[in-house]
Amino acid sequence: MAYATNPGYTNRTESATRSTQLYDLGLLSNYALMEDEPTECRLINKTAAIDREEVISYRSKKIAKVTTSLDVQNPSPVATGTMYGVQTESIWTTEDAGDLSVGRIDSPMVITISIRQERNARITSAMVEEQLERTISALQNADGTWRIDDLMRSALKPTKE
Question: In 56-77, which positions are buried (b, 16+ CB within 10 angstroms) versus exposed (e)?
Answer without folding.
Answer: bbebeeebeebeeeeeeeeeee
